[in-house]
Design brief:
The structure holds 2 protein chains of 2 kinds.
Chain A lengths: L1 H15 L2 H22 L8 H31 L1 H7 L4 H30 L6 H26 L11 H12 L11 H7 L3 H13 L5 H25 L5
Helix pairs in contact in A: 1-5, 2-3, 2-5, 3-5, 3-6, 3-9, 5-6, 6-9, 6-10, 7-8, 9-10
Chain B lengths: L3 E10 L2 E11 L4 E5 L6 H8 L7 E6 L8 H7 E4 L11 H10 L6 H11 L15 H13 L5 E5 L7 H16 L3 E6 L2 H4 L4 E6 L2 E6 L1 H6 L3 E7 L2 E7 L3 H8 L8 E8 L2 H14 L1
Parallel strand pairs in B: 3-7, 3-8, 5-6, 6-7
Antiparallel strand pairs in B: 1-2, 1-4, 8-9, 10-11, 10-12
Helix pairs in contact in B: 3-4, 3-5, 4-5
The chains are: A mainly alpha, B alpha/beta.
């Protein structure tokens, strides 16, 4: 546990001392959400902005949290620091947990900033309870994204090998997770395939929350699945990350 | 008990044999050099010794411990300096050393970090980010990371590759100080002027050892040449190493006026190692 916090502390120190990474990870979601606003402003006034605003903000957080975490871990491998950590006595579970803790702060910040901007820019009006739940779901999605990044990084030997996973995992989720069209309108197989992506469950909760009159019973199943994603990906990553060649 | 014992160590990657039945032992406090050309298997051997690689066959013991089964215990007692810098560029020298030192529950870590910073002559730049350092300084930070927890055996993979002669000399002074305090050093190198500074060396070629001895004994396996300059041209012949062999070789010349220079050359360690490798390839 002590060594987990040592790694987490080091990850946070690195993030803080890397202004380019910080700008990319925090400012980029804000800029993208603003572009979304510019785009939505061109659509007819009857267009249901609320249906898309928060899910798209959640997707941006999901994408960046995944990419940044995966690349940071792959860099550890290419720089030789991953091997050095293991030879110095750090265990793989400590490395994974340290990364999760280290990126948790960043994921939280991304979730708060992305969500706050979407609500402010699109002039969405939700009660306090809904806002808290929206934050919880985006935050859980960000954690699942960090876990996904850690898991995927174990299959990449250098940074370039992370990028093929973007069209394989991230982009299909845009079309199959209910982000753009309701999954009920998709063919059955595509609907089922959509269930594989964490974004599907996050969007499911978000749509329930922004519809008026939601109760916790409506969203608890999807929230649990989203949390379960993190646990399963954590377990998978702890099996695929190799300490010994 | 020896610091390192290796018997029949083999490592295969598919059909490629990176290590072919390596046997060697290294005593405590010894400075042991692993010599060989690029691709000979030096890094593979070191990785097997530090437990970063699972051998395909044979056995390894470091301080009597199995690098894979006794990993936790062994890693407290060994230090490892990889071939590349393997440092966090965004962190300071102190940040890097403290991070790797913290993995071992090093007592008085802050004091130890200051000590190794001083030992590697980095105190003045201790708080600067590593990305502002020269290649040589990064090597010193990397060495400090390997030393911070006071290991009993240190593995150094080509520690002075791409390092200027002045820094190389400083590194070797450090290695000798460490060996003087009882630390065992296992150093891989392809530089012969560095190998000659080791207590013993092993020559590795295509994953197999072809000789293990002191550098002096290996040099003795070389030849002595008589070089005679005559009428502006040079004649070279191989002679025995004894004084009477030299006299016998010179007798035919009778020191005629046209003999303008006489020199006796003995093979360097590099020449002996190369000839051993070539002999192995022909054989």
């Amino acid at each position: 546990m002590r060594r987990t916090f040592i790694i987490a502390g080091r990850v946070v120190r690195q993030l803080v001392r890397n202004p380019r990474l910080l700008v990319l990870s925090v400012a980029a979601p804000l800029v993208i959400v603003y572009f979304l606003k510019v785009f939505f402003d061109t659509l007819p006034p009857t267009f249901d902005v609320a249906r898309y605003a928060v899910p798209v903000a959640a997707f941006v957080v999901h994408f960046l949290a995944f990419l940044l975490c995966a690349i940071a871990l792959v860099q550890e491998r290419t720089m030789g620091t991953m091997e050095r950590m293991f030879i110095n006595g750090f265990r793989r579970t400590e490395v994974i947990a340290g990364y999760v803790l280290g990126f948790l702060g960043l994921a939280t910040f991304q979730a708060v900033a992305g969500l706050a901007e979407a609500i402010w820019l699109f002039e969405l009006d939700y009660d306090g309870e809904t806002l808290v739940m929206l934050f919880v779901v985006v935050w859980l999605l960000a954690i699942a994204s960090v876990m996904l990044g850690i898991f995927i990084s174990t299959f990449a030997r250098h940074e370039g090998q992370v990028f093929p996973f973007v069209p394989l995992i991230i982009l299909p989720s845009v079309f199959l997770s209910g982000l753009l069209v309701d999954v009920d309108e998709l063919p059955t197989w595509a609907d089922w395939l959509g269930h594989v992506f964490p974004l599907f469950w996050a969007n499911d909760v978000i749509q329930d929350l922004i519809a008026s009159g939601w109760t916790f019973d409506d969203v608890q199943r999807s929230l649990a699945v989203l949390a379960g994603y993190s646990v399963v990906l954590l377990l998978l990553a702890s099996r695929t990350l190799r300490e010994v060649e | 008990m020896n610091a390192i014992e290796v018997s029949g160590l083999a490592k295969k990657y598919g059909r490629f044999e990176a290590l072919r039945g390596v046997d060697l032992s290294v005593g405590r406090g010894e400075v042991f050099g692993l010599v060989g050309p690029n691709g000979a298997g030096k890094t593979t051997l070191i990785k097997a010794l530090v437990g970063a690689l699972r051998p395909s066959g044979g056995g390894v013991r470091v301080m009597g411990l199995n690098p894979l089964q006794d990993r936790a215990e062994l890693r407290r007692r060994i230090g490892y300096m990889p071939q590349g810098p393997a440092l966090y560029d965004d962190l300071s020298a102190r940040g890097n050393i403290a991070f790797f030192g913290a993995a071992h529950r090093t007592e008085n870590l802050r004091k130890r970090v200051d000590e190794v910073l001083q030992f590697t002559d980095l105190s003045e730049r201790a708080d600067d980010p590593v990305h502002t350092f020269s290649g040589g300084m990064k090597r010193r930070v990397s060495l400090a990371c390997a030393l911070v927890h006071g290991p009993e055996v240190i593995f150094l993979d080509e520690p002075t590759a791409a390092v200027d002669p002045q820094l190389r000399s400083r590194f070797w002074k450090t290695f000798r100080e460490l060996a003087g305090s009882g630390t065992t050093l296992f150093i891989s190198t392809h530089l012969m002027d560095e190998a000659v500074l080791c207590d013993r060396i092993a020559i590795l070629r295509q994953g197999g050892l072809i000789a293990t001895d002191t550098p002096g004994s290996i040099i003795e396996r070389g030849e002595t040449h008589l070089v005679v300059e005559r009428d502006g041209s040079e004649e070279k012949e191989t002679i025995g190493g004894r004084p009477e062999d030299l006299a016998a070789a010179l007798r035919p010349y009778g020191l005629q006026r046209d003999v303008t220079a006489v020199d006796v050359e003995t093979d360097t360690l590099e020449a002996v190692v190369l000839s051993l490798i070539e002999r192995e390839e022909v054989g």
